[in-house]
């Protein structure tokens, strides 16, 4: 028996036995995925044994028949070990390539959970990471930070703003992240003059004698980037100042040329767009006021009082308007230029009281249905004359000053362990003209809480695949200047590195309704995540299930808009971006950009549940960031733009007869749309059928996915003259919206249709779409588009 034992210990040229042991998840560096580890059973040295070179178990059994039974047992045990080991290896390999394996063993089709990755990171599965995120988020810290940020006004360039920046920098440093730094710019901002206040007068018919001064009850309110100077003329009420409002006035024979126009806040258009439409109609100046019909005035402090005006910038763009397309670094000399989005007429915000005093003196045509606001003692008439009948006019004076201002964006980051050069970015503006509880406090608080939470997760075993970047932006009130200047400075590299951007600005204004202003590439990610987050008002119900209980599915996906903190990232930088917002369904939060935007009023609107709602928003963003930072394949819906192109193709079909009569063919667009749809579908299928353990292939796929948004930036327009180059979300002649609007003239106003202009627009859009299709196809030898 001793001889048999010694013979079995020596190496064999035919048979090897293995022993195996389980290694816990999150084990050593060599086996960080956990599972079964196999090692050959190493023989103990025995100097007394001289084995024959070709001896084996079979020979041994033949030579020693008396031990046949025990030898068979050994053979059986070795075979069983080999079979078990092979089975375990096959199971692990199957789990590594299976696209249909659920998180707890059930079979779940991949379509039900698109992009979800079931591989553990440092011993943690997605469910464990979600639980860890929820565990570390603290609503008390969110509320405390909002209180701290909004304790005083802190506009960009002020001593209060500088002190707050220093505080936030120290908060980031205390988290001991991988990197913390500042990025500085010099930008030209506009502020109210301290020596000559903006003014409003009623003057005589010649505009020389001042008859009555109309005091501006809120003297610190102003419209940043308004034109400087005075405007004198009749006063015309133009409802919301939308294009359709000016069109109606023109059809009714009411001219606004040379007049001062008065507009209500709201109507779905920004201050900058209102001013643009007024300029195009020939107005000489503009006054903007909050009407009680749109912004409630409530004695319980939940509404705006009648003597407060709402400030806002009026630059039809973002960033420093005096360096369009260029970063505002102080060591760079730029040619003298300015943004075409700067207004050429003076603009001033006024209170409801001031608006009521002026409108109550007007005469002229009665307002059409739907234009009547709720100003007290006002009979809605249009002007431009006054009821006194003596030809009096309005004179407004705007004397704001331009000032070069040092901006400081504050950054902190956690490096990814596998793809550190790919960034998921979260940001919020830091400055505010008032206390800014909603305007800057909420976003800053959620940003810091997410940074603290992810930092703690990393210290407790979470290894993000990609890097996380947390940013506090300066000069957001002036049109996202800090964020846009950073984008302009690093545009040449960000489209290769930025996975997605999450704007946290104005994230909490209520607790009833959630809206997502987003790039279509991120829409599916939102809809899958809201099923995992509890509704802040309805315990035990997710945001999604609560929407279903109220009579339908959650459908609050909206397009990015110009003043959004996310807009520049997509329309200018080609980075998928999103801005989430909790609001009240029945009323708007009326205090933004006023001295009334305090934490006390926000708590009243939320019934004292500010921390709870802020935590729900932070959890929602955090879970989406977690997916983007953890999954092998980025969960971006690359086929979403196929629908936009298909919708436009349908429009073209409606005008096929008119186009053919002019010798124009839509076939170019149809071919490009088909090529893009096929390329997106093929890439999606390739990903589903690939081995996601192949890091080289994963890197190639993710690079193609990340650049989809960038592909839709038109390469045929100047970034200086047309900074928002995105053909679907941008602004300008190259965009799909401009092309569709021009196309509609074929039936509505054929004489205004410009064939040469339309050909150029169609070519720009078509070749941008075709370029996106070619790039999405991958390598040049994979492009089989027939165009």
TrEMBL record:
Name of a matching Pfam family: Peptidase_M28
Compartments in which it is found: Cell membrane
InterPro entries the UniProt entry points to: PA_dom_sf, PA_domain, Peptidase_M28, Peptidase_M28B, TFR-like_dimer_dom_sf, TfR1/2_PA
UniProt domain Peptidase M28: residue ranges: 409-600
Cellular-component GO terms for this entry: external side of plasma membrane
Primary residence: membrane
Topology versus the membrane: Single-pass type II membrane protein
A GO BP annotation: endocytic iron import into cell
Top-level taxon in the UniProt lineage: Eukaryota
Residues in PA domain copies: 232-297
Keywords assigned by UniProt, alphabetized: Cell membrane, Disulfide bond, Glycoprotein, Membrane, Receptor, Signal-anchor, Transmembrane, Transmembrane helix
Annotated segments matching region Disordered: 22-51
Family the entry assigns: Belongs to the peptidase M28 family. M28B subfamily.
Protein name listed in UniProt: Transferrin receptor 2
Organism: Esox lucius
Taxonomic classification: Eukaryota, Metazoa, Chordata, Craniata, Vertebrata
